Amino acid sequence: MRPLRKGFTLIELLVVIAIIAILIGLLLPAVQKVRESAQRTQSVNNLHQIALAFQSYHDANNELPHNGTWNNTQWQWGPGLGDWVHNYPTTATSPGCTWAIKILPFIEQGNLLNNYSYKTPVNVFMDPGRGGNGLVMAPGRAWDGKADDSVYWDGQVTDYAANSQLIGSGINTEGPVTAPNFTSTWTGPVSGWPTFHRRLGGFQDGSSNTLCVGTKGMATQVYNSRGCSNFTLTNGATQACNDDPITTPGPAVMGTLRGFGPDDVWWTAGTGVPFPGHKYNLASGWDSWYFYTFAVVKDAPNLDSWNRWGSPYSSGAPVALCDGSVRVLSYSTTKEVVLAICTPNGGETVSLP
Q: Under a CB-based contact definition with an 8 Å cutoff, are residues 136 and 155 in contact?
């Protein structure tokens, strides 16, 4: 007689497979949660390091870094490419560059500023929750090596934006209250630019109540096309990516700034609704929607990220205050609270987590 072989019946095998599937189903969310927690911790560390770099820049220059001027314009003739308008980032052109370029020496990237390369990622500007290599990946957005507009299309991207109402640019709103605009003084010496020249301790709300830099909101379609100008919505329409590279300077640059107000972006200024702590009111007709852009939003498909803070994390968006501390703002944070921490001289009292 042939001996009987012991084994699983079909039903037993199916039960084992089902149990394994259930265990995997229970384990995966836990693994994903741990991974997200680690990524969020790294993002918080990045923001803390950037905020400290702002402080170090302040100590060295007696003011916070502003976001530069269109085309890196500055008073020295012909730096970089030997062209008054089109210049890649250098130490000489840095007065007209973005805050992200200005702080490079204070995040151990001084060599990059001295010998600029469009293909060298800056890890501290990258949120690990979004992936990517930290460089512009959008088709057609590369510098062609010539003195033309493509010099501002290429380079490093940042997942973090500075508070525009805090640092402004070299072209802030100025002129009569009845006709707010900007002048051409920013084409001359840096000392004549209409910057805020903001100093720590020199604004009413204080460093511990004013947002310095935070994670910017982003549509998930932009993850794989960093540095793009527009992306395609699921309905086939297009929408702004709000993800300019750090080589794109000037006012109202959504790639490096959030929290715009009428004192730092003249086209929002007018004689309409008062804006907290600002010389200029909001332009008439903007009051029905503009204040709602001061929001904290989770990254999502088709997201309109215009002027909004946000992050890829379920718990909220990390932001760094001017004192260097980092807080996580929940997605239920009201527009009043977001506006209060964006306005350096609004006089509001807020309680942050």
A: yes
Residue 58 and residue 79: Cα distance in Å, rounded?
Answer: 25
Structure tokens at 54: 């702002």
Helix (H, G, I), strand (E, B) or coil at 55: helix
pLDDT of 71-121, one tens digit each? 887 666 556 677 778 888 988 889 999 999 999 999 999 999 999 999 999
Q: What is the pLDDT of residue 28?
A: 67
Q: Residue ranges per domain, the chain?
A: 13-342
Helix (H, G, I), strand (E, B) or coil at 318: strand
Q: What is the DSSP letter of 289?
A: T
Beta bridge partners of 296: 309
Cβ-based neighbours of 347, under 8 Å, separated by 6 or more: 204, 205, 276, 277
Tell me the average pLDDT of the chain: 91
Alpha carbons within 13 angstroms on the beta-carbon side of residue 268 total 25
Q: Pairing mode, if any, of strands 317-321 and 326-329?
A: antiparallel
Task: Categorise residue 335: left if φ over 0, alpha if ψ from -120 to 50, beta otherwise.
Answer: alpha
**Residue ranges of the alpha helices (H) in the chain?**
10-61, 99-102, 110-114, 164-167, 335-342
Contact 184, 80 (CB under 8 A): no
pLDDT digits (tens, 9 = 90+) for 206-221: 999 999 999 999 999 9
Q: Are 338 and 318 in contact (CB under 8 A)?
A: no
Distance CA 317, CA 309 (A): 7
